Amino acid sequence: MRSRFRNWKIFILMAATCILFCDCVQQYVSPYKSPPTGYLVVDGYISGNGTTQYSLTRSIPLPGDSTIPVVTGAQLQVEGTDNSIYPLSELGNGQYSVAYLPLNIAVKYRLRITIPGGETYLSDYVAYQVTPPIDSINWIQNGAGVTIYANTHDPSNAIHYYQWRFDQTYEYNSAEYSQYYYDTPANTVLARTPAQQIFYCWKDIPPTSIVVGTSAQLAQDVIYEFPLVTIPQNSQELTDEYSILVTQYALTDSGYDFLSLMATTSQNLGSIFDAQPTQLTGNIHSLSNPTEPVIGYIQAGTVQQERIFINSYQLQNWVYYNTCPMKDTLVPPLPAKLQMFFGSFGYVPLYYQFSPLSGWISNQAECVDCTLQGGSNQKPSFWPN
Q1: Pair type for strands 75-80 and 109-114
Q2: What was the pLDDT predicted at 62?
């Protein structure tokens, strides 16, 4: 089972300053002083039925550069109480992964991290949790938009604590359709191949929140219509087709407490990308400096996934206007005009007009090239035909 862990980083403060927005701008001075390199941030899940992937980054202070410092050249391995050892491979950009681990439900596991320079971090041993299957992922349209819900239950009545991560992808179009492109070296216009089309695009939405839930207060371990995300009414995401891949994890009570506090702090500041003025105690420790805060909480177990699609024809009164503010321009089929408009001015040919005047009907790339909105013109492998 494929389990994707986006590089969403939890920027937990312990930084020197943080800007909070209230009725006026005030400076927050934290009592927790981050080292110059920032605290180590560890994000991932030890999976027994899918990819185990971890990202290593450093926390950043606010205000300051928003670039996320990644940790490269580290060595990671999963260790079991049965003396099993499973190394992870470095993927680049602070990502470390192993495709499959033959884990045992009767064994506890931990994560060992050795970063360049020899400093080693070790997590506590954690129990292997069997995550119940997702019963369903459903959605409801209301005045606010479309809200997507998760439903699950544990027949053994043992889990009670859950986390959900989700990968969202949607299809969208550019405002105008181009059948042709400008070949710069030849100073001519050629027909596009299917691989060169720039009208249909697909865009991923990076996660920006921590979503956890619990049934601990209920007699039965049942999660019913737990809200994951709301897509605002008339937004671009549901103009054509939308997909969400939901990954469900079982948590321990202490792991839930850690993530719940982190989620609350993130909501107060605006997002998980803000440095957080709260010291959160995880279960990862520096061997050389036990008092050094390390941001993250190691969990182990199986994961469950389900993907759904929502098509625009399933919605009512969903209106999104995708128009070009600029009028089309006729470019005469003359070498100098082609070079001027297509080579210098950034216009893109749409189609050829023969009358009343002959030439290339064109418009600015922003109206024609869907990839300029941040998406890709390559259809994802999981997308329906």
Answers
A1: antiparallel
A2: 55
